[in-house]
Amino acid sequence: MGNMAVRAGDNRRDRRFREEQRSTERNLLRAGEVIMNTRLGVKRLAGLVVAASITLAGFGLVNTAQAATTDATITLSADKDGSTNATYTAYLIGAYTHKIFDDDGNLATVGLANPSGTGDDAAVKTAILTAAQGAGAPAAASANPADWVAANWLGYTTTPVSDDTTSAASPYAGYLQVFASALSVDQDFIGSGKAPSVVKTSQTVTSAIPLTFDNLQEGLYLIVETAGDSNNRSLPIIVGTQAWNDNDAKRVDFADGGVGVKPALGAAQLKNDATYVGKSIVGLDDGYSIGDLVEYEVTFAVPNLGSGKDDWATIITDTFPDGLNPPNPQDVKIYAGSDETPIQDKLKTGSISVTGSVLTITDLELLFAAKTGSGGTKWVNTAVVADTAVPVSAGTIIRIRYTAQINENAVSVFPSNPDEDVTDNTNTVTFDDPDHHSTSASEDDAIAYTFGFELEKVDADAQASKLEGAEFTVARADAPDTPLTFTETGVDNGEWQYDPESTNTTVISRGSGLFTISGVEAGEYIFTETKAPAGYFAVEPFTVTITPTFALNTQTLDTLEYELGDTSDAWLRGGTLIVIGDTTSSLGNLPYTGGIGIAIFLIVGAAVTIIGVRAHRQSAKAETAAAAI
């Protein structure tokens, strides 16, 4: 997990960087090109470099102007031994162009070159577009399909968050893997004389011996394994090289390259298509409140059964923790590739079941294989799902979606303890088939985060004096007239948990002045003091925003911070505790309800009145005297 501390920024560095980026984008626009920027859909902390951006540029695939851009490398590693005597080919999808670096020399923004649209380049571009649209890309991707894929699926969630958070969480799953799988078999892309490529033959990649492609044009690549053991091949991999920084005379990554499980540029890991199972939360952005439904997507690739297998069974299990209620079996949906036709009804009755906290899905092989041959004893791949037109050839990504409900046992994360153990918010997915001796747990983190506020009520003029008995309502800023409801988790312990089933809308500070609110999603909240402690004035309503950021290309929390609205009645202590100061209801503290300014006005007003009355009386006496004369 990344650094969870609240970070301060360098505004001047930010301004210089933004000005440089805007200048480059203006230049591209003047050239008639389209800009595509990728941003993580969470608040950006000041002083941090922006998320990696992909900008569109209409230039040829290969630029040989600088030798430094043609000796890039990509290193393949494995967490276990891969195929023996395999062939690995790196195909260039798009070369880098228009690179921008931050003040520290890290890559900040980069463009992907577009094929020229003639000859073999035209075929390559068409192949990329066909694979992209087959995976769900819109017509708008046709201008530069490689760039669109990179901007939307290559490890960076979109704003607003797209439906495909799986690709953002893993380069081996989601629509990105559907795209990679299609491109890896398209002869207009991988055929002789098409996409530029580098081949490594007779290779055995093990956990101790990596494989390095060298002398590469810097850019984005598709790496495909062929030959070797067909049942032990890696999924096709999409990975970019590092970028050459002329000023620093070295190759660099994005500042957040390698953070969390985000792969660094220039490096990739083989993923065996028979064992890898992806797991992600769909639409994770601001976390969840207790009672919310959390949607998961679990993925695996259809294995290549070759000439047939005597026995075959594919099973997915998902074990849910105390903080998540498992799904209803009837709500589980299964899809093949980018096709949105549900195919779970092609399983046997009872194949999807829940026992206790465990969801089990059996007979998945019926979606992509059938028995054939003498006596129907051999399992072989099928071209389509039985009784449908849904393609499901080897390599197709099977996508399983379902929802679990986050409950009162979920652990809330606070800025004071961002490394809180969230095991109770994390499910465990395993995948099993006959090519395994044991099940393979998903390597991806998919944590259903929920958050909270820590507050302290004090005497504004004597902060060591803690105040109990202050009562508040809390509402989301987008629903200010609907107070949230809470339950206190213990007898007068001041720990208030959001409870959608409760009718209580009041939270109360207890003996130490401390109280907490937990079980809420991130966002802006309005705190209204409805009853002040005896002898004190209530503060004006104020807002607090809780903002998480997630490590790029992961669903792992990176930072968490509070931000107060415009108020003088509350402040942050150490960035992690919201302190609320009440003022005593004495004459000297009247400014808080009209104040001593009013008292002074009354005194001055009284003096003016006395002077006026006296003047009037003197005037009256003068008139009487004049009348007598």
TrEMBL record:
Membrane keyword on record = yes
* Residues annotated as domain SpaA-like prealbumin fold: 453-547
Q: Which UniProt keywords apply?
A: Membrane, Transmembrane, Transmembrane helix
The family database entries (NCBIfam families) matched by this protein are listed as: RrgB_K2N_iso_D2
Instruction: Tell me the protein's name.
Output: Isopeptide-forming domain-containing fimbrial protein
Species this protein is from:
Bifidobacterium crudilactis
Q: Which residue stretches, if any, does this entry annotate as coiled coil? A: none
| Origin superkingdom | Bacteria
Provide the transmembrane region boundaries: 592-613
Annotated GO biological processes are:
carbohydrate metabolic process
One of this protein's Pfam families, by short name? SpaA
